[in-house]
Design brief:
Helices cover 33% and strands 14% of the residues. With 186 residues, the chain is an alpha/beta fold. The longest helix has 14 residues.
Length: 186
């Protein structure tokens, strides 16, 4: 459906996905301004200075505007994007995955998130971490950022916080979505 009749939650990586990143992020920000209670925009790992400089958004902005001022302003906007969201009090959403530094939703609410994403810690984990069906506990991610977490971790996190599931967007899968961890993670 169309706003304002439908709620939307976008879960990151609006930039670095082709030559129209400026237009995509501009449209999403405009929708958020127009429908502040219906459109929610979470930060992804590409809405950071380091990643967007490497994967193309910085170069796209330079090509379109001739200097980095607009890119700096977009990055400031990204610094204010929420890292996580909660749908219906039961579905915990983020771009990446869970963090070994965070046990409760209240702990997340206490984070100082209005900043460039740090190279490590819970904000970084929420942007970069991934689930693994064959893993238990926590291990450092082979991506070089975030962690890989097992079914035991998502199970305890969901039970502790009375959640139905964790929803994330960080990995591309053939059918567009994929359940794992006994349907606790999608």
């Amino acid at each position: 459906g169309q706003p304002p009749d439908t709620n939307y939650l976008f879960m990151g990586d609006y930039v670095d996905r082709g030559y129209y990143s400026v237009e995509v992020i501009s449209l999403l920000v405009a929708l958020k301004v127009r429908y502040p209670d219906r459109v929610n925009i979470l930060r992804g790992n590409h809405e950071t200075r380091m990643t967007s400089q490497v994967y193309g958004f910085y170069d796209e902005v330079l090509a379109k505007y001739g200097n980095a001022n607009v890119w700096n302003l977009f990055m400031e906007v990204c610094d204010y994007m929420p890292i996580t969201g909660l749908v219906g009090g039961k579905v915990f959403c983020m771009h990446g995955g869970l963090s070994p530094s965070i046990d409760t939703l209240d702990h997340i609410r206490s984070l100082d998130r209005i900043q460039e994403a740090p190279y490590e810690g819970p904000i970084n984990d929420f942007l970069w971490s991934d689930p693994d069906e064959n893993q238990s506990g926590w291990v450092r991610s082979p991506r070089g950022a975030g962690h890989v977490f097992g079914k035991d971790i998502s199970e305890v996190f969901c039970e502790t916080n009375q959640l139905t599931m964790v929803s994330r967007a960080h990995q591309a899968v053939h059918d567009g979505y994929e359940f794992c961890h006994d349907r606790r993670v999608v």
